[in-house]
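Quick review question:
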């Protein structure tokens, strides 16, 4: 039987991590999951991590740079994986529909069809980029997937993204080691594996308006934006069985834009969905830019 396990990468966003894990437990109940935490020091996050016991690896070593120990943790997840496939998630994501045995079989068919591929995207497409994705993604005729038309200018997401289903066997066969940015990994992924397929029937997505860390620091603009949003996460309703059935049986000419298929628990959240909460106000956006520029020159 084909197996899939989940690695979740976290840092100081306990509410988001809890939501992510609860969505896995609801919608992937047979999947084994493990949290790789990059030295969280937020008290609420640490308290929640304690409740997870052996399902957490907490790395306290400080690593300089914008991404901290994120890519080190991704490599650790790959090194420890024992299943056929490994789903790499970040804590600000949610599984939004039930994953069935047919979904697992579809993933296997996609990897079998794309014999070089080691990464497959399971993420809904962002509606804010409709024109971009409509132009660049073409449906495959033989398997439930889309593929990039041309990767020359778009290594991310044409060949690689940090959120993906990976084949540990194929990665290990090439001696893969995660580098310190999406672009570096995209360059290496193109050389080793070519284009990355996008599942026609994705099952996860990013939460909207999330507070985004930069260099493991939450800027004043990001903090203010989260406070203005009520200090609450904007999570999604799970797709109903009927909605999920219609979704997976639709024509692949209808691309899987999140805004067309999944709804937020809070019905007032506007569409298309926005990401990085500080972008929702000129004030928080300005504060964020000023702080990042100041950090660069200090």
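Suggested answer, residue by residue:
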């Amino acid at each position: 039987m084909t197996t899939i396990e989940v690695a979740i990468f976290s840092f100081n966003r306990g509410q988001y991590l809890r939501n992510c894990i609860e969505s896995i437990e609801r919608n992937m109940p047979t999947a084994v999951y493990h949290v790789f935490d990059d030295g969280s020091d937020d008290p609420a996050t640490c308290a929640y991590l304690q409740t997870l016991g052996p399902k957490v690896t907490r790395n306290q070593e400080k690593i300089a740079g914008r991404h901290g120990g994120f890519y080190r943790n991704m490599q650790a997840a790959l090194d420890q994986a024992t299943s056929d496939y490994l789903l790499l998630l970040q804590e600000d994501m949610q599984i939004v529909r039930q994953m069935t045995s047919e979904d697992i079989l579809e993933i296997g068919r996609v990897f079998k069809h794309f014999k070089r591929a080691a990464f497959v995207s399971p993420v809904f497409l962002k509606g804010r980029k409709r024109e971009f994705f409509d132009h660049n993604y073409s449906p495959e005729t033989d398997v439930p997937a889309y593929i990039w038309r041309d990767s020359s200018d778009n290594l991310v997401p044409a060949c690689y993204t940090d959120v993906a289903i990976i084949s540990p066997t194929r990665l290990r066969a090439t001696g893969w080691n995660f580098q310190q940015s999406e672009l570096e990994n995209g360059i290496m992924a193109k050389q080793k594996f070519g284009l990355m397929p996008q599942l026609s029937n994705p099952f996860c997505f990013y939460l909207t308006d999330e507070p985004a860390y930069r260099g493991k620091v939450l800027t004043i603009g990001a903090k203010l934006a989260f406070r203005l949003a009520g200090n609450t996460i904007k999570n999604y309703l799970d797709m109903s069985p009927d909605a999920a059935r219609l979704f997976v049986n639709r024509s692949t000419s209808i691309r899987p834009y999140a805004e067309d298929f999944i709804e937020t628990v809070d019905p007032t959240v506007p569409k298309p969905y926005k990401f990085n909460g500080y972008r929702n106000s000129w004030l928080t956006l300005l504060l964020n830019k000023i702080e990042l520029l100041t950090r660069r020159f200090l």
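Why it works: The mean pLDDT is 89. The chain has two domains: 4-199, 209-297.
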